[in-house]
Amino acid sequence: MGAVTYPARAVVDLAAIRANTARLTELAGPAAVLAVVKADGYGHGLVPAARAALAGGATWLGTAQLDEALALRAAGVTAPLLSWLYAPGAAFADAIRADVDLSVGAAWTLVEVIDAARATGRTARVHLKVDTGLGRNGVTPVELPAMLDAALGAEAEGLLRVVGIWSHFAWADDPGHPTVRSQAGVFADAIALAESRGARLEVRHLANSAATLTDPSVHFDLVRPGLAVYGLSPVPHLGDPAHYGLRPAMRLEADLALTKVVPAGQGVSYGHAYTTTRDTVLGLVPIGYADGLPRHASGTADAWGGPIQVGGRRLGVAGRVCMDQVVLDLGPDATETAGDTVVLFGAGDDGEPTAEDWAQVVGTISYEIVTRIGARVPRVYLGER
Ligand SMILES: *Cc1c(COP(=O)(O)O)cnc(C)c1O
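That is the input. Now the predicted structure with pyridoxal-5'-phosphate docked in place:
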C-alpha cells in the first residue's frame, strides 16, 4: 500500500505545526513548551510532528506511551522527552538508556524505575505525577509525602533525580470552573512540599492546550499543549483556531471512485438509510470507518451526515458510512467524475468542513476525529524543510 495508489490521504501541513508551536511558545513565555505528540502526533505522524514542533520552538516533547518515546529516540530525536503511561513490566531500562524522562505516579512505578536504574547503572530522570483532582493518573496528596520520601531517598543513592512535579486538569476547557483554581492550589502545595523536602526541581507543569490558551496563571515553568499544536481549538465554544492564532494542520481528502446516474427512489448504501428524492448522480468516496470516519456520521433521509466538500459545494454523507466507503448525492447537475478529489475536512478557509465540524455532527471532540484516522490512510507532508 502506498501513497500513490491509496485513494484517500491525510495531508499534513508541517508549516502549520511549526507556526502553531511558535504561537504557543509566544503565549506561554516565559514558560517553555512541551509539545505532546502522543497517539502518533494526534494522527499527524509521530516523528514529522515532533520535528515540526521542535522547529517551531518547543523545547520538550511528550508521549503517553513509552514505545512512542523510544520510537522518537530511534528516529534520532534528541530533545528532552517525557513519557507517562505504563503498566508493570514496561521497558524502563530502555527508557533510561535512551534518556527518556519518566513520570512516576504510583508506588509500583517507582520500584520498577529504581530497579531499572540499578540495572543500567544510570540515573533515571523522574517527574512525580500528583493527582490534584482529575481522579486519573498520579499519587493523591495523601500519598505524596511517602512518595517524596521514597523518591528522594533513591535520589540520595544516585539512582534517580526528581526533576519535575506535574499534574493534569479535569476541566481546563471551562476556564472559570472552580476545579481549575482548586487544582492549581493543590499543585502549588505539592511543589512547596517537594521543595521543603529537598527536591531540586527543574520543571513544574500543569497546563494542557486549553489552560495554555486561556489561563497564564497556571503556566508554571512548562506548558504541555497537544491539540493546539495541530491547530485545533480545545475550547470551540470560546474560540475557533483562528481566534487563538492557530491553523488546523490536517486535511483529509479522497478521490471519487465512481459517479453514476440513478433514478429517484434509489436507496443508498446499507439499510437504505437514505433514498434519492429525484433523478440524481451518486459519487462513491473510497474512505470509511476502517479509515477512521465515525459510523455515527451516517446520513439519513432527513439529514446528510458528515460534511464533505465537492468542488465549491458542501454536501454530506448520504446513507451509512461503510467500512471502506461512503456515498454522496451529488445532485442532478453534477459534473464530477471518478478521480476528482473531495475534502472531508481541512483548515476551513476554503469553505471546506473542519475536524470540529465532523466532531459536532457526531457529538464528539475534534481530538477524536483526527486521532482515529486509520494507519492505512497515507500521510502526505507539506511544508517540509
Ligand atoms: C494529552 C495530554 C496533554 C495534552 O492535552 P491537550 O488537551 O491535547 O493539550 C497534556 N498532558 C497530559 C498528561 C496529557 O495526557
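The pocket of pyridoxal-5'-phosphate is lined by residues 36, 38, 64, 84, 168, 208-209, 224-227, 234 (CB under 6 Å).
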